[in-house]
Amino acid sequence: MKISLIQPIHANYKIVRKSNGGFFKPAQLTMPYIAACTPPEFDVEIYDEIAAPLDTDKINGDVIGITAVTPFINRAYELSKIFRDRGQTVILGGPHVSSLPGEAINFADAVIIGEGDLLWPKALRDWKNDRLKQIYRNKKPLPLEKLPRPRWDLLDPKKYIVPQVVQASRGCPFSCDFCSLRNIYPTFRTRPVRDVVEEVEKIPNRHIVFWDDNIIGDPQWAKKLFIELAPLKKRWYSQATITMAKSKELVRLAAKSGLGGLFVGLESFSSNSLKGTNKGFNKVEHYKKDIRLFRDNGIAVISGMVFGFDEDTLDSFEANLHGAIEIGLTGVSCSILTPYPGTPLYKRMEKQGRLITRDWSKYSSDDVVFTPKNMTPHQLIKGHNHVGKQFYLYSSMIKRYSKNHFFYNLNPRKMLDNAIEFWGLNLSNHRYFKLFNENTDEENPIFISSTLDRFSQTSD
Ligand code: B12
Ligand code: SF4
Q1: Which of 99, 241, 262, 345 to mutate to test the pocket of ligand 2 (most atoms within 8 A of CB)?
Q2: Domains of the chain
Q3: Ligand 2 centroid vs 199 CA: distance in angstroms?
Q4: Is residue 15's pLDDT more than 80?
Q5: Which has the closest alpha carbon to 216: 179, 190, 244?
Q6: CA 190 – CA 144 distance, rounded (Å)
Q7: pLDDT tens digits, residue range 417-445?
Q8: Which pLDDT score, from 0 to 100, does residue 445 have?
Q9: Which residue has a Cα nearest atom 5 of ligand 2?
Q10: CA 182 to ligand 2: nearest atom
Q11: pLDDT tens-digit profile of 290-318?
């Protein structure tokens, strides 16, 4: 009995692949982890469409498991139809399915809601015994002791810049208005520190990504983790809230344990815009000193920047751009506010009749899928593009690089790491936004995806 696990791709990601030559392509954890949860009586294989095109004719599992975030779900449904028409059983899981199981079940034989660790083996055994149910759901949050090790042997390490990643905690103690996390992980939980460290120890590569949503969600646990990680001499990256900067000790321990770069969701430089996000812990007035603390410890900060909040106006684009350059961020990831299904934001937009489309492929954070308050959708897209392009201009790169205190400890290895990461990230994004803006039709209406499709066709 054979299982084929699939991570599908969205059209936008083909563009990213082309423009940055795969600079930021860490391995995805979901399917190696689900493979590890597969009972031993099944053979299992993984297809990652982000890394290589799929040949559906060759995918011959008796059961096909597919994961998808919202913008990839159309592709997941398309694949599901191909396999089901051939008589293969399809089980869907992941963030979109967990948010809208009632929709997903129309395209699959079964759906897994939330964490699949125990539900997946149960569903497979039910299938084997001819009693597969349509919906599988956990009764309570899972304990994270003794998780199986992801099956990295099923991915080709050459295809990824960081071939093995780790998840040390699940969920986040916060609950932001636009975040989908609660649909997957009902509570914040941490793994035993020793267990995480043993997993990291076995990873042969020096570079590690922790795919946690907020690695300092429990600061005391995080301190223990950083202390135990330090002797391994790894260089690692993760995501955290800016609340980490409240503790100098935490930042210092993180730096000592090898933290090279952190993705932090500052989202906006306007306190007013942040008002409706339930993200009161982001204090705009502290950003400058907080980022300085990270920089002084040799930690690069890449921030999420979101455009389209109800309080945003046309002036917000310049204000955010200026703020991001002034505090010397290493990178920004620009997104257009997107009401993902199941979030409080989605419910509000739906109630206010402001959703423009439910074509999930547009829910990529590059498109406008709702009616903004103080600008047109077209202005929102243009503003978002403008910030991306300006932030990654050479002049901005030089200004931001010069603000970085990467020479803080005169450690040549760390200095080189910082320089390679800074210029690699910035030059690939420079290229992306340049190509993207060149291919944007200013007369084009709402959806950026049309631009991307056009770009995709012309740049082959
Ligand atoms: C790492 C990460 C990324 C990475 C890599 C993505 C990847 N595919 O691995 C990058 C940075 C590229 C990324 C990009 C995006 N991401 Co992302 N990302 C994450 C993050 C932080 C961790 C994912 C992860 O590896 N988890 C660890 C694995 C083990 O957990 P898991 O995937 O949730 O799987 C468990 C269950 O969901 C379930 N399960 C999942 N799939 C399946 C399938 C089957 C068959 C079964 C049985 C079970 C099952 O079982 C697993 C074990 O319990 C999540 C948040 C989160 N914690 O999940 C956001 C998250 C998935 N991302 C999100 C979004 C929106 C995006 C983007 C669209 C954002 C953007 N602006 O571009 C893009 C999409 C592109 C992409 N490639 O996926 C949202 C998804 C929301 C939604 N409704 O779809 C999340 C939930 C973040 C959030 N806070 O809302 N992301
Ligand atoms: S801090 Fe980040 S991960 Fe946590 S709820 Fe907010 S957006 Fe989601």
Answers
A1: 241
A2: 2-137 (3.40.50.280), 164-457 (3.80.30.20)
A3: 25
A4: no
A5: 244
A6: 7
A7: 988 999 999 998 998 888 777 766 555 54
A8: 42
A9: 175
A10: 5
A11: 999 999 899 999 999 999 999 999 999 99
